[in-house]
Amino acid sequence: MNKIKPANQRVAWKALAAHSKQFNKLHLRKLFADDPKRGDRFTAEGAGLFLDYSKNRLTEKTLKLLLQLARESDLRARMDAMFSGEKINLTENRAVLHVALRAPGDATILVDGKNVVPEVQAVLDKMSAFSNRVRAGEWRGHSGKPILNVINIGIGGSDLGPVMAYEALRHYSNRGMTFRFVSNVDGIDFVEAVHGLDPAETLFIVSSKTFTTLETMTNAETARSWLLNGLGGDKTAVAKHFVAVSTNAEKVSAFGIDTANMFGFWDWVGGRYSMDSAIGLSTMLAIGPDHFRAMLHGFHQMDEHFRTAPFEKNLPVLMGLLALWYTDFFDAQTIAVLPYEQYLKRFPAYLQQLTMESNGKSVTLEGRRVNYDTGPIFWGEPGTNGQHSFYQLIHQGTRLIPCDFIAFGHALTPLGRHHDMLLANVFAQAEALAFGKTPDQVKAEGTPDWLVPHRVFEGNRPSNTILAQRLTPEILGALVALYEHSVFTQGIIWNINSFDQWGVELGKALAQRIIPELESDAEPKLKHDTSTNNLIRRYRKMKKSK
Ligand code: F6P
Fold it and tell me: 204-253, pLDDT tens digit by residue?
């Protein structure tokens, strides 16, 4: 591959480094005071989302340099490479084509010379037919009862997307059915998920790209025993109560699930990019095929926006550049994502895998150690709850924490004055963070001198505000795609591989080695470090004593 210049050696990066110094003195108060149009100027719209990024530490010049950095990093060419199915995931020699999952049926996207769109559509049709049968009570359990409970067993991308989407779109879900999610190998997760459920009415979806993941396979085995115990031990019951979502037909069949009841996807769909593949089967069962297709349409709208909008009006590009701006030029360690929408309560958790498993990398595509910061830590909670917990630190702490506020024009179930109050809070928070309260303002309120420093708000704390009309399946798709492509934008500039996850391997391998050391009857010969050896011995003792 061509030798790529390190990101921080690019002309625009160096210019940004110099330019960033002026923000030591430049306050958002002044930026707004000097430009009466600022609140209109730094906004962009696409795929039903409105982005106000005016409350960021940036000027026209900053924006110009950030956009120049994107161009110098060949962002356009790299986007085209992704959209056209090039194998941009170099370390796994794979294409990165989650965009094909939501492409229209008549699109052509080639992987190794083969159009993948018809296969995607065929799986969607199979999912739809299955979902319709279950939802209509036509798919019956082993004892003839309709399925009323659906439990998705999966972890990481095979869990976080489905849970997040179920919670986000609950308003559209079939309320006559119960949906639960099991991910953790901690048995309590399973115990609680099946609590109170009748096995005869329960369907398990075993969701695993590889169908080898320890947590998922352990939970799937436990689920099979639970089901068989509950239904009198007849093994043929498995066929009516288990379906699989995987790329690994062999393993699915070895587990005992008929591959006729398997919904496939492909190695070019990364786990954290898979909620719109068959991994979303639980979502489709909850909201129905039409709403699921609407969600895919929303994803596609944002894909098209990302692919075609000029960078200066391109939401994912702008958000990606802003995340990088604070990470690399202001030493910001984290970004808070703060949805003012209770249905998005799992959105920050979902984003954590998307952003941090993607961009938590410290070597370039060529394998050289980077000498600049990459992926920031993403975290968050829905507003207004966060306001009464950690916002104190965002307002007055010593760290710079850029925030993404997300809010909607309408509540899905309007209730008195609640929504106006909710929105008043989100606007107030962004305003308070940006403008703060000066010592003079605090004094003018009659505050005694000794108390003034405690009550001052520095302000100049950046945020984005994302608004949409209401939380529909389309908008959820657009919102997820916005962050997917923002992550991509950052990864391209940092010249890292946003699509592998080797960092999860070591712990998995060590756990496999330790499991027999915990379970063996005979005292094992431990060859770890002294700390790990001691912990293992102590645990073995704890197990023996009541
Ligand atoms: O351990 C990380 C990971 O590989 C994620 O990338 C993935 O989403 C998750 O595990 C689950 O993998 P699978 O779908 O193969 O069970």
Answer: 999 999 999 999 999 999 999 999 999 999 999 999 999 999 999 999 99
Determine whether 45 is an active site residue: no
- Cα torsion angle, 143, 144, 147, 148, sign: negative
Closest CA to 429 of 379, 380, 479, 384: 384
Helices 315-329 and 289-308 pack at an angle, to 10 degrees, of 70
Task: Ligand 1, residue 508: give the atom nearest the CA.
Answer: 1
Q: How far apart are CA 63 and CA 215, in angstroms?
A: 45
Q: Is 156 in the pocket of ligand 1 (CB under 6 A)?
A: yes
pLDDT digits (tens, 9 = 90+) for 46-100: 999 999 999 999 999 999 999 999 999 999 999 999 999 999 999 999 999 999 9
182, with CB counted inside 10 A (0-12, 13-18, 19+), is buried
Q: Is the CB of 152 under 6 A from ligand 1?
A: no
Instruction: Say how far apart CA 146 and CA 203 lie, in whole Å.
Output: 10
Amino acid at site 450? W
Place of tokens 């061509």: 2
Under 8 Å between Cβ of 378 and 334: yes
d(CA 513, CA 442): 60
Whether residue 217 contacts residue 154, with contact meaning beta carbons closer than 8 Å, is answered with: no
Query: End-to-end alpha-carbon separation of the chain, Å?
Result: 60
- If one counts every other C-beta atom within 10 angstroms of the C-beta of residue 455, the result is 15
Model confidence pTM above 0.85: yes
CB neighbour list of residue 31: distance below 8 Å, 6 or more residues apart? 38, 59
Q: Which residue's CA is the nearest one to ligand 1's atom 6?
A: 271
